[in-house]
Amino acid sequence: MRHDPLFERLWDGRAQMEEWTAAVAHGAITHVSDNIITVHTTYFCGSVTAIRTAEGLVLIDTAKPDTARQTLEIVRSWDDSPIHTVIFTHGHIDHTSGITVIDEEADARGLPRPRIIAHRNVKRRMDRYEASHGFNSIVQGQQFNKPGYVYPIGQRQPDEVYDSTLSLLIGGERIELLHGRGETDDATFVWLPDQRVLASGDFVIWVFPNAGNPRKVQRYAAEWATALRQMEQLAPATLIPGHGPVVFGEERAAQMLRDGAEALEHLVRQTLALINRGATLDEVLRSARVPEEYLTKPYLVAKYDDPEFLVRAIYHFYAGWFDGNPAHLKPAPTFELASELAKLAGGAARLAERAATLSAAGQSRLAVQLVEFASAAAPDDRSIQATRAVVLRKCIDGENSLMGKAFLAVFEREAEQRSKS
Q: What is the CATH number that goes with domain 5-264?
């Protein structure tokens, strides 16, 4: 099967993913084979793949709450058979939440609800989301600027779990499930050997691997690379990413998997070499880099996560939370440190003034540190908060990753509110 012109422009970097997202916004089908389709609604919602079998449909993932019904309607435009099995590639809500709509349809038709299969850790993830529900609601609301957001919990959990691999035969279709750790510890990639179709889940997402999110639990860069190497060895003829368009052709699929693995391996190797020499986190952050040849690949652009965030996650995985600076082992409260620095500088306003000067000179990182000290020393000073908002905006404008922009924007909004209250 040939790719369409938009895919070709994505592949060679002439088009951006926003154009593809706009093209699929009303729902789109990619025909993978006569009996397999992948449904897309937006880049930010995981792809949903439907496999037609003699016993009914098998779905790989189910979409997120606001696109689940649309996704199911698109599947139904292709095939109206009962849904026999649902496979969760991992426990994130943009891949699992649609099960509610699917169950409602089965109930309305008087049919059994589909069996859900996933890795064992999906259940643990769902349990953890319930235990940390308040935090998850806060973080998701901050990251996507949705005040009052309530993280959805309580969706149906897997009926059948596995640990390493699981072989299925459903209606004549052989389906292999393989576990790996990457963005999550509960991830599955799905291999259809007879058709050489690979559904990677979020191991492939058309941007640099999301293995360093600042406000999420530990992620696994080294094991992510290992999983990509396993997928490369399968030599898929078709690669269905967790997000983004389907990739046809063994050569391109292999390239995408190999490049992702190499980029992660390089970053892990550099970080570990520095750790093993006794480097502090600060030294590691200043030295570990992904070669530019990878970051210029259209499918590895550091647009969502930031390789620097990955370095922090790799360091934490191997070296723990202490960064090697004795002042950070049992640090003074931020207010006390900020107040002392303000006294030395001649007042919090002087700190804010210097931050503004540094920001104007393009030294955003240092500017943000100083303006945050000024804010901590004088949190109710409207002028300082106004300066803080300006400094943070300048930093946001210079930030490449959507994640970095999102979290900096949380504090910019806070500063703007304080400057007016």
A: 3.60.15.30
Q: For the chain, give every residue range classified as CATH 1.25.40.880.
A: 330-420
Provide CATH 3.60.15.30 ranges for the chain.
5-264
The reported pTM is 0.95
Q: For the residues of 214-283, what is the DSSP string, one character each?
A: TTS----HHHHHHHHHHHHHH--SEEEESSS--EESHHHHHHHHHHHHHHHHHHHHHHHHHHHTT--HHH
Please state the three-class secondary structure of 133-153 as a single string: HHHHHHHHHHHCCCCCCCCCC
Tens-place pLDDT, residues 370-420: 999 999 999 999 999 999 999 999 999 999 999 999 999 999 999 999 999
pLDDT digits (tens, 9 = 90+) for 79-118: 999 999 999 999 999 999 999 999 999 999 999 999 999 9
Dmax (CA) of the chain: 78
Q: What are phi and psi of 154, to 5 degrees?
A: 90, 5
- The structural architecture, per CATH, of the domain 330-420 is Alpha Horseshoe (1.25)
Angle at 370 between CA 401 and CA 326, to 5 degrees: 90
